[in-house]
């Protein structure tokens, strides 16, 4: 719709200062109010079947019955409007529904502020400073709690039959325990899948006090119940009990230790002045062409550093059964498994959201915020780079399982 220059000139008559247009009593706010009231009047006309100012059909008892005042929260502050009524109360407007108190995406704005990590107190202060709105903590809680229904649907949604890669990772969050009322460090586990077409998808998130084979088996069972029949490569960060659980649910899956996490764990034993050279020597292990060559490089590393950092080589040897599958893959696949950029990016988004919170009052509160962080993460682009080469290698190496 194009607004003519003549109409624009007519509307702007008397607007000499910015506040005449954009102020609390300015043209833009007044125009919004008048247009909303006009549209509500049109809805009532359609409901009653006769125009305002004209007589109702003689056989119709329902009539216009004045207006009721309503104040709505919007990005322009509080907006007072007059909502038309009918005599028998059967009119249910669509533009501003009965019981509605917010317009202009205020719910989305509140949820967006919550997803950015702002507390309820911070959100109230922001809305008052920017929009002049005084919002109760209860309203903010009700708006953000509505996300929980979306979380439940997301957690139960159907998944694809096969994922070439699923990366499992964990981070720690402080949550008040429902029984003891003490704040505890709980683990939030996230599963990030890469689909056959190279699309990243967060398959789910789970909160638990402790990891273990029983917990991971329940996660695997849930994924199977939601439609996953096969995982080609499962990448894990030394999660206790995971290899047994994954092979129990998906016997053909290859379990691969996350190389990045193993390197970081190794560097934790090093002084700052040695970290760079130790990292270079570790690279020789995981960049080897074959598992045998990697084992020889590990021996060489141990011979060089065992006297100073005796814990590093044994840590690699303990994880070796989950390290060596890495060497069977083509460089195109190795790169995706090794870098784990996707899960690192996801963790950054989650940590950014939760860093301002000392602790969460409940697991639901933590789940709500982490889910919103995941939703923001997936908006930022979901395709894996250079997937075409990796896809071809998967099609060759896993043949029927990949192409089924």
From TrEMBL:
Keywords: DNA recombination, DNA-binding, Transposable element, Transposition. Residues 59-72 have a biased composition (Polar residues). It comes from the Bacteria. It holds the Pfam family Transposase_mut. This is Mutator family transposase. Required for the transposition of the insertion element. InterPro entries: Transposase_mutator. Residues 50-90 are annotated as: Disordered. The keyword DNA-binding applies. The keyword Hydrolase does not apply. Belongs to the transposase mutator family.
């Amino acid at each position: 719709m194009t607004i003519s220059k003549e109409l624009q000139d007519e509307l702007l008559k008397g607007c000499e200062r910015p506040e005449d247009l954009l102020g609390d009593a300015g043209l833009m706010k007044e125009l919004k109010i008048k247009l909303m009231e006009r549209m509500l009047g049109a809805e009532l006309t359609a409901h009653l079947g006769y125009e305002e100012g004209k007589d109702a059909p003689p056989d119709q008892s329902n009539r216009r019955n004045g207006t009721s005042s309503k104040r709505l929260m919007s990005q322009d502050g509080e907006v007072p409007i007059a909502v038309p009524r009918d005599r028998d109360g059967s009119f249910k407007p669509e533009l501003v529904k009965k019981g509605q108190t917010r317009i202009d995406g205020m719910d989305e704005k509140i949820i967006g502020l919550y997803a950015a990590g702002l507390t309820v107190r911070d959100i109230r202060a922001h809305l008052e400073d920017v929009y002049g709105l005084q919002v109760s903590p209860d309203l903010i809680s009700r708006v953000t709690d509505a996300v929980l229904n979306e979380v439940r649907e997301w957690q139960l949604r159907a998944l694809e039959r096969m994922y070439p890669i699923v990366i499992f990772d964990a981070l720690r969050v402080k949550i008040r325990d429902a029984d003891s009322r003490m704040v505890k460090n709980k683990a939030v586990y996230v599963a990030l899948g890469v689909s056959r077409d190279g699309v990243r998808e967060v398959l789910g998130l789970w909160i638990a006090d402790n990891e273990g084979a029983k917990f991971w088996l329940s996660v695997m069972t849930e994924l199977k119940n939601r439609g996953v029949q096969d995982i080609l490569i499962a990448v894990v960060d030394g999660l206790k009990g995971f290899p047994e659980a994954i092979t129990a649910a998906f016997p053909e899956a290859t379990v691969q230790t996350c190389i990045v996490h193993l390197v970081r764990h190794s560097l934790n034993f090093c002084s700052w002045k040695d970290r760079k050279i130790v990292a270079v020597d570790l690279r020789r292990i995981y960049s080897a062409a074959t598992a045998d060559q990697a084992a020889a490089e590990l021996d060489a590393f141990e011979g060089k550093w065992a006297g100073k950092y005796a814990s590093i080589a044994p840590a690699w040897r303990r994880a070796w059964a989950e390290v060596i599958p890495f060497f069977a893959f083509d460089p195109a696949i190795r790169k995706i498994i090794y870098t784990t950029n996707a899960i690192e990016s996801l963790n950054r988004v989650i940590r950014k959201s939760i860093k301002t919170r000392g602790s969460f009052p409940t697991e639901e509160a933590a789940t709500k915020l982490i889910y919103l962080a995941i939703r923001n993460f997936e908006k930022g682009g979901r395709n894996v780079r250079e997937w075409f080469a990796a896809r071809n290698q998967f099609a060759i190496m896993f043949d029927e399982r990949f192409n089924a």
